[in-house]
Records
---
Amino acid sequence: MIVMKFGGTSVEDSAAIERAADIVFARLEQRPVVVVSAMAGVTDSLLAMSQAAASGSLPQAMELLRRVRQRHLEVLSALIRGADEASVRERIHALAAALQDVLRGVATLGELSPRTTDTILSTGELLSSGIVSAAFQSRGIPSVLVDSRHCIVTDATHTRAVPLFDETSNRLRCDVETLLQANQVPVMGGFIAATAEGVVTTLGRGGSDFSAAIIGAALNAKRIEIWTDVEGMMTTDPRLCPQARRIEMIGFDEASELAYFGAKVLHPATLIPAVEKNIPVHVLNSRKPKSKGTCIRSGAPRSRTVFRAIAAKKGMQVINVKSPRMLMAQGFLRALFDVFAQHDCAADLVSTSEVSVSVALDSSRNGGALLHDLKRLGEVEVEAGKAIICLVGKHIRGRVGVAAKVFQTIADGGINVHMISQGASEINISFVVEESDVLEAVQRLHRCFFEAECVGEPREAGAGLQVPSLASHLGARPEVG
Ligand code: ASP
Ligand code: MG
């Protein structure tokens, strides 16, 4: 069997759902399970209406709800007619009515708990999956709507619940595998789940990819397909650099680094269940179903370029903690990271010296309380408006001169580097620059490491290097198509 996940833009309107139906139809023999997101923008609207209700603007919440309901009804009637339409229409009205009740409750109490947020957000995938399943049926696909709240079991960490794999696998084998054996096509909402007691949970924003990977892992899928609106993973963000190219194949570890450092295509946790079961994940474009996309798998062959890709993450800050007295004292780093943990802040990059520690993290995490607690440990300085640039490639390991070339390229652009990190696993080189330098830095690095003129640049023969030299590597044709 295979899992086919369609993201928000791939089910955003009737034309998109028709394209998805054609794509699934062409793969019926591979026994697909279909996972869908909410229609593009719906989760954001649901969030906005919940916040409007909580802050006392019930009429605004109701207006947003009316628009969401209307949009779904219009998509439905463009796709299906007759009795089938009537039953889905009823479902849409019922889900909207239930949502209205919840929003009224939120407005009355003036309080929005994570648990209630999950109930509200789950409406998006419940709506889309019902429409998609019915549309598939009317186009000759033997689809059956499966309620993800009965199959994906999580703990009660609302808004970012953690799946309980054993129980989930059991239920999926029971409910979904049986349908596959009967040659039916299960259609499920991604992102949504429930606790063992049946309380609705969600897997975190962008969590439909994660749902697809969980289902794929539980049912031993041959492949997981993530259908989206881009060509696949790219060598860098095409908005920053029009020369960016599609990556044909990439390792799991490399793709996780990229997802983490700003590549928007995949949810960072998506890959974990797939990695554990060694299931290849294909990122594909639902607008161009013939295009080959990107295959993410273990043991991806060595790229012909030094790096697989360059990612950039803006909106970062660097927090420096200086403590000449304490840094070398035992337990200082532990105390420091305890503070970050207590404030639920994950550090993206860390670098230490004798007298200071620099931590790069998302600017949105700059709580006054965090800084207050850090100040107990030493002198604290915050530099905002920064960005992390991350070059990812598993095969930089053991290669001489790569870092020199990266930083020479950056220096040639007159760009100042604020912080540098390269882990011992040597899968990425990351550094911090001013946000305003990102465009120049990414374009220079892409030109140097991915674009033909420079990639083929001859280098002097290395002086008896034991490792494959940068020159021989750079001489090869770029990997991407
Ligand atoms: N609809 C959810 C979101 O927008 C989940 C997803 O699309 O993956 O975050
Ligand atoms: Mg997504």
---
Amino acid sequence: MDEIGGTPLHIDLRRHLREHDEDRDLTRLICEIADASKYIINSINTGDLGVAGTSNLYGEKQLALDVLSDRIIIKRLMHSDVVANIASEERDDIVVVDADCEEKFSVAFDPLDGSSLVDVNLAVGTIVSIYKGCNLLQPGRNQVAALYILYGPRTTLVYSTGNGVHEFGMNSLMEYTLNQENIRMNDGPAKVYSPGGQRSQYSLGTEKFTQYLENGGAKLRYSGGFVPDINQVLIKRSGLFMYPHLKNAPDGKLRLLYELNPMAYLIEQAGGAASDGRRRILDIRPESVEDRAPVFIGSKEAVAMAERCIAEFDA
Ligand code: FDP
């Protein structure tokens, strides 16, 4: 951070993107999403928490806040002039903004992940995945950027465009200023773990892996929200989140396009790993926007051990 006369000159998100020579349109797109988050925060703080009366593709009840957050982001994306196709976890169909798409970006996003936590006032977040061109159904390794915004006691934004992972905090003027750049995860065993799903439904491989984590001294720290749980792994530089394949849900719960790909991109950029238990998340080719996959994500060592346990016990 620059110093002028001893006063730190904070680097805001736009300046950070510019200084990293990011494509002008990509800078614009990321800043539009950052701007949209200000309205989402306002809605979280003041909005209607009641059920909207509609359900999404997966038959889940939508809270009014999900619908609102989706509309806020879609509107910004549609008017950004740099977006071709949009997939939102809250919509059944892809929104085509511009058929002339080669030079534009396509965006998949979960406007308010962890919405079942809204009524109990726990942390929730927005997750965004960005591709160049029109195609949203391609392996996550082709993403050109990913980011999440965590609405916790503080609001933070974490992004990567393939040149490291950077964290920003929202200040009192509602600007995102740099907290830390080039976040790198530590080598070594996971210090915390966040296990999604019911343990009675775990496969033998996942059960053995859980025992390995516990015997290694990892502490259970599960918030119930994917964004805060991943943020914990990243900011603590160590840890493991899983939502594994379950006996009653072989594909787990989380969605590849909206949740797993962007988080896998960010965690890999920070030196971690993400696997469905057998393959790298970013190598999975999605067949539809609804695809789900099991996930083991975080410290490399722990993810490798999860794969070993699954190969040995879940054959
Ligand atoms: P939610 O249903 O509240 O939106 O994929 C969404 C998610 O929350 C994640 O944020 C969270 O990690 C997971 O589901 C929690 O699932 P369980 O309800 O099965 O614990």
